[in-house]
Write a structure and sequence with these properties.
single chain, alpha/beta, 12 helices, 24 strands, 29% helix
Length: 436
């Protein structure tokens, strides 16, 4: 799909999409919750659909109601010998330890960029927990067979906190009746700590055994009494997504004014830090009970450390393109194993739009442009690249055409519709190309 964005002014109020970080964790917790769970405000992105498919393959039943999903589960009881994670990095990293709770041999696969992402972590860690695993030299597909036995381990947290999320949930289930009085996961160099806060919060709301941690370095699980009882029904409200909301806020600063509703200022989502970045840029922003309102105005280049919230790089690059002077963002090392090598992709695609980006070590420097120009760009099959280019195009000189714009379906399928609701001039070409 191609999307054509013509320079336009935006105005109005829009509800932020459902958070796939919140939604996917809730699906995993609902699988582990022996009973009934109701997820309110459920997401419907491709990644959310992948998570729903996985928990169904692992034995849960899912019923769609108006504005809710009802999930009934007896724990991990696979009804299939294969699960498919689509292109979801969170799903593959979070659900693999949960798959390993079963003594059934199960193959785990994915598609697109997920096939090239490193999964060596599981080859190193799961055998320590009594799990048989085979992979394609650290790549998909993988085959695992449990049952996983919680043991004291030390793990590297520098690549992604999502690996830890999966282990925490698995330990939170298996620590019921576990052999040891206490079991500890020791983590070295953990990145994206706010996402672990979100994981622990979801575990608590679903009644899982939540560990006590000391400065995110040691997570200690205490032994819990064994219980076969069905848990009380759980009702969980999926949060509004700060990751998708960040693009809407930047869009409003470039071409607004816009009010974004449904974002919880007390959320544990890492990308809530977008507010700090906007403040650093001296952006015109106001927050009240109705939502977050942003207005266009003169903005300054800023410094921001995105090590713990790397998904903010794309919207912040679009913002920095319209700031005076230079903007410096740290955390480039976190961008290599995304849907694309996101640092290089941002540099290449924004260069087409007249925005100069320098990369040096762990730092990205964006030079604000007096005129952002429309151009033919490519998402590189990366949802956040597509959205960043679309937002930057709103006040560009001439139109911008984004190839493979359908990548937004991974996290924010209503993105272009929402821009149109705010008044954006968007044309979508859904013609299927036929190749000889």
């Amino acid at each position: 799909m191609k999307a054509t964005i013509r320079p336009t002014r935006l105005k109005g109020s829009i509800l932020a999409p459902a958070s796939k970080s919140s939604m996917q964790r809730a699906c995993a917790a609902a699988l582990l919750n022996k009973g009934v769970s109701r997820l309110l405000n459920p997401g419907h992105s491709n990644d959310d659909k992948a998570a729903i498919g996985i928990i169904q393959a692992l034995g849960a039943t899912v019923t769609h109601e108006q504005d809710a999903l009802v999930i009934k589960s007896g724990g991990v009881q696979p009804i299939a010998d294969t699960i498919h994670c689509g292109e979801s990095g969170l799903s593959i990293r979070m659900f693999t330890p949960l798959v390993a709770l079963s003594n059934q041999e199960i193959t785990i696969n994915g598609s697109g960029s997920l096939l090239t992402r490193p999964m060596d972590f599981f080859d190193e860690v799961l055998p320590q927990l009594g799990v048989k695993i085979s992979s394609q030299e650290g790549k998909l597909p993988m085959t695992v067979q449990g049952p996983l036995q919680p043991r004291n381990i030390t793990m590297d947290g520098s690549l992604s906190s999502q690996f830890l999320t999966g282990l925490l949930m698995a330990y939170g289930q298996t620590s019921e009746g576990s052999i040891q009085e206490e079991t500890t996961i020791t983590v070295k160099d953990l990145k994206s700590k706010p996402y672990i806060d979100l994981t622990l919060d979801v575990m608590k709301q679903f009644g899982l055994n939540v560990p006590v941690h000391s400065n995110y370095e040691k997570f200690v699980f205490s032994k819990q009494p064994t219980s076969e009882a069905i848990n009380s029904p759980v009702e969980y409200v999926v949060e509004g997504d700060w990751s998708g909301g960040a693009f809407l806020l930047v869009a409003g600063l470039i071409a607004g004014p816009v009010t974004v509703r449904g974002l919880d200022l007390t959320s544990t989502q890492a990308d809530r830090a977008i507010i700090d970045a906007l403040m650093a840029a001296n952006a015109a922003i106001a927050m009240d009970a109705k939502g977050i309102t942003v207005h266009p105005g003169e903005m300054d280049g800023f410094y921001f450390d995105a090590t713990d919230c790397p998904d903010l790089f794309p919207p912040l690059v679009a913002l920095a393109a319209y700031c005076n002077g230079q903007t410096t963002i740290r955390g480039v090392s976190r961008l290599m194993h995304k849907e694309s090598n996101r640092a290089l992709t941002l540099q290449d695609e924004f260069d087409k739009m007249g925005v100069f980006i320098e990369l040096e070590g762990d730092t990205m420097t964006i030079h604000g442009s007096e005129f952002v120009k429309g151009a033919d760009v490519h998402s590189n099959h990366d949802h956040r690249i597509a959205m960043a280019c679309a937002v930057a195009a709103l006040n560009a000189v001439d139109e911008t055409v984004i190839d493979e714009a359908g990548a937004v379906n991974k996290s924010y399928p209503d993105f272009f519709k929402d821009l149109e609701k705010l008044g954006a001039d968007v044309s979508l070409d859904n013609k299927i190309k036929l190749h000889e």
